[in-house]
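Would you mind writing out a protein's amino acid sequence and the numbers that encode its backbone to help me picture the idea?
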Amino acid sequence: MGIETLIDKKEKQEKIVAMFDDIASTYDLANRVMSLGIDKQWRKRGCEKALEILDQSTLTQLTDVATGTGDLLMMWREIATQKGVKIERFVGIDPSVGMLDIAREKIDFATFIEGKAQELPVENESTEIISISYGIRNVVDRKEALEAFYRALKPNGIVVILEFTKHDRSGVVNRMVDFGMKRVLPRVGGWISKNYEAYRYLPDSIEAFLTTEMLRNELLEAGFEMKHLQSFSLGISTLLIAQKPQ
């Protein structure tokens, strides 16, 4: 990889982080309004299925990457409590200081660390679960991030990914979904946050991202075994759960 490519990737990553710093204070409200609260159901299903697959009563550590304002961490604790699973340590990692400031105001049961997915500040084989919700497409060095996830997971540990993946949308219903994602939601998010560029980035980043099958293949190439793959809400959101072999 040439030095120019490295510089371009670094600058792109820094621009994405700065964008999230800027919208941090309105991020939760914008998410709830744009998704009508459905995103909470997507996260809930991801946590439930992951704990079912892992099938352990006690976890040493759960690590949420690109944690943002910590919504998924709160869901993890809620579902783990319901299932009688004890999680000894919750860790949230994000490169956006603005997002972490909001997370620390909301959550008192987790440790928050500023850091990037591709440079994961987690010790080798120290965590049973790594989750990342709607953040993997914002990681410029995705291959390095998946390798870091594999390194940090204990044997049999799992990575849980929720993401908006790219689709070939045909048919009336799918075209309506596409119109909402590309035209309506960016306007709503921009109006709430007063940062229209940030919410124009949302559909653009999805369009430039991978298909579900491509992301699945990248997980396999990183050494993981696929355990679960599921789409929600007409394919708007996709859940992928993969396991590090024993």
